[in-house]
């Protein structure tokens, strides 16, 4: 028996830049390859963009068809000093591991319904068009519906949170 695959088309990414004369141009217009967090996963993740620092360096000389580190997939989950733009397709029944990143995250539910569950047990159901400002809290994403969901994330590097003198750094635990 084969696992169902995401019904969504691949994420299309258009990257703009400048010619050597300073004119605006499209540097890349491509459908991104799917990647998976684990070999058994059926839910694709798309790494759309990554910067290693903020403010981002955007005047790097690049030409059409030539990739630079800021545009291609970066192996880290987040960029401690920069930004990450990512899209997740959540399969029906999928539950992410409980995790915290040292980032300020902006999430937009593009399709479907997902549940944001915090470590105190609070659950928020999010539907198409809903947004989340995730501020370094321990959380899990759940798709408890029978339909696929698609969520876009922009993650900005942030300072480590301290509560009661204890640093709350990045961590991840198996889904519960």
UniProtKB/TrEMBL annotation:
- What is the official name of this protein in its record? Cupin type-2 domain-containing protein
Phylogenetic classification of the source organism: Eukaryota, Fungi, Dikarya, Basidiomycota, Agaricomycotina
- Superkingdom is Eukaryota
Region annotation Disordered: where it falls in the sequence: 1-22
Q: Name one Pfam family in it.
A: Cupin_2
Q: Point to the regions of Pro residues compositional bias.
A: 1-10
Where does the Cupin type-2 domain start and stop, copy by copy?
Answer: 88-154
What CDD domains does the database record attribute to this sequence? Answer: cupin_BLL6423-like
Q: Which InterPro entries does the protein's record reference?
A: Cupin_2, OryJ/VirC-like, RmlC-like_jellyroll, RmlC_Cupin_sf
């Amino acid at each position: 028996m084969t696992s169902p695959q995401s019904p969504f088309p691949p994420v299309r990414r258009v990257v703009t830049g400048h010619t050597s004369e300073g004119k605006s141009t499209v540097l890349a217009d491509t459908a991104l390859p799917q990647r998976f967090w684990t070999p058994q996963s059926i839910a694709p993740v798309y790494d759309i963009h990554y910067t290693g620092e903020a403010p981002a360096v955007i005047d790097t000389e690049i030409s059409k068809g030539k990739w630079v580190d800021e545009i291609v997939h970066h192996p880290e989950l987040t960029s401690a000093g920069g930004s990450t733009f990512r899209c997740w397709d959540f399969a029906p029944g999928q539950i992410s591991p409980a995790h915290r990143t040292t980032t300020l995250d902006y999430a937009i539910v593009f399709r479907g319904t997902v549940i944001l569950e915090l470590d105190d047990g609070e659950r928020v159901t999010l539907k198409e068009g809903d947004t989340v400002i995730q501020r370094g809290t321990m959380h899990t994403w759940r798709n408890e519906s029978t339909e696929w969901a698609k969520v876009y994330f922009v993650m900005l590097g942030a300072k480590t949170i301290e509560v009661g003198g204890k640093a709350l750094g990045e961590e991840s635990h198996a889904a519960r």
